[in-house]
Amino acid sequence: MNLRQLTERYSVTSQITVEDVAEAARSGFRAIVCTRPDGEEKNQASAAEIERAAIAAGLTFEAVPFQSGTLPSETDISRMRVVLRGVDGPVLGYCRSGNRAAMLWAFAETGNMAESDILAAGRKIGVDLSPVSGFLQENAAPVADRAPGAAVGEAPGSVVNSAMDSAAGSASGPVSRPASDSAAGSVPGRRFDVVVIGGGAGGLSAAAGLLRRRPNLSVAIIEPSAEHFYQPGFTLVGGGVFTARQTRRAEASLMPRGAEWIRSRVERILPDEGRVVVADGSPLSYSVLVIAAGIVLDWGGIPGLEETLGRNGVTSNYRYDLAPYTWQLVQELSRGSAVFTQPPMPIKCAGAPQKAVYLSCDEWRRRGVLDAISVEFDTCTPALFGVPAFVPPLMNYIRDYGVDLQLGSRLVSVDGARKIATFERKGGNGPERVERGFDMLHVVPPQVAPGFVRESGIADEAGFVAVDPATLRHVTYRNIYALGDVAGTANAKTAAAVRKQAPVVALNVLATLDGKEPVFAYDGYGGCPLTVERGKIVLAEFGYGGRLMPTLPKWILDGTKPTRLAWFLKKDVMPRLYWEMLRGHEFMVKPDRVAA
């Protein structure tokens, strides 16, 4: 690649190949922007081909094509701003020569850099950016004049939904820029058809599904994080199968086209008033509210845990920055004691705690050191897995790996310096405390509903959003829906459940907006690919009441047995389905109608 650097965070190059993408990742780029339309030259790699390679390399990809000899549109500029502001790291732009990628950058930096600096950057790499001079003079605000705390590229007193940024984006083209906490929702009394709380799997999928069906809806997505994580991949990071960066993308690149990103935190919900209040005190009014705020990992719920996470042999696959440490510990351990824990339900993916056990043991067995390591799995649950049909194959692995399984055992404290974990177990005379020394401790923290849900009068006894388990509508407030981990339903809290819930919520929200009753029902489906060794998985699929709900016929894939096909689905197919799900693509999820 012939790289030309405009700034430390942005470079341009000529047309790249699929092979160049891996080189870009090795060079430290976090995102690739294509400004060239497909088909300009014979044998030109298409944007779709480059996107697939970028996804495989863990990079964000954005296509913002415009014809040579023309200037980018306001929508193109907005989309580029989202990438530049939302990606944490260097960005690479390309076209036939690199000049259009440089031109789009110049327009996008309006208000963020002085005109002279933008033009000088172009001269440095041999690109004449003078055609944008008039636009820059008209629109640029001096950097020194920017209000404290205002979003980069935002003039003092401007609102997030400016004329240029009134449309929002998607994975194939976001066009609304994220607001800072101080600016988001800064117009008092702003109203939307639908307000979505949460930009995770549930929120993005439901919003994208709504806008695919009805593009003219006004939809706001409240999400404070600049990054989105493929959390089902964390276990594979901890098992040395994925790299951490394969599980991370810029949140900006995933915003559905037509949605407005309110980059802030929710402070409280006022359901009787139909309003949500964000961190700066600004209210957002809604016709329908969709809550997809996830679940909170309560690291502080176990005394001593937070202070020792990431050192002293204490780790967790439930955090992006810690999953690589899990793999490091597994590789370093050749003898000693390894302890794995599971807290009380509900938790994200109830199978994930034991997946860490199996992948670690498999690696130790491959290295020939498993017999020198004492492995213990302490789980609060009364059985290894909640659906009996999947317990026998899992117990086979527990026995084969020589794991000491402790049921009804809860981690209550951690002393990292002494490498002591304390558990509470049922004894003959009541609860008793047991200390266990460790060289490696993999902890799954207790998990609770977000505070604003528990305190807003919409929660059930457990603190989660009280919804009808079929329609996912609130049991009291007819214009509130919930999906994902925050919903008070009895299904497994997995991304597979969200895949089935999102179209149900989208369709029922539209019915509510039209003054009708919900028409579709969720059946409780959840999927848990239990990785029992590298190369084999027990694919547990089930619905409400533990009813088995396999997607594929048994003669193709028997989910009650470990198979290589399930491993292929988990490692290669499911990540792709996940990212497409966030765009509103609904594969094999046709919802059932509400029973008459």
UniProtKB/TrEMBL annotation:
PANTHER family xrefs: SULFIDE:QUINONE OXIDOREDUCTASE, SULFIDE:QUINONE OXIDOREDUCTASE, MITOCHONDRIAL
Domain Beta-lactamase hydrolase-like protein phosphatase-like: 3-110
Compositionally biased spans, kind Low complexity: 163-173
Region (Disordered) residue spans: 163-186
Lineage of producing organism: Bacteria, Pseudomonadati, Pseudomonadota, Alphaproteobacteria, Acetobacterales
Top-level taxon of origin: Bacteria
Signal peptide: none
Domain FAD/NAD(P)-binding: 192-312
Pfam families according to UniProt: BLH_phosphatase, Pyr_redox_2
Residue ranges of coiled coil: none
UniProt protein name: TIGR01244 family phosphatase
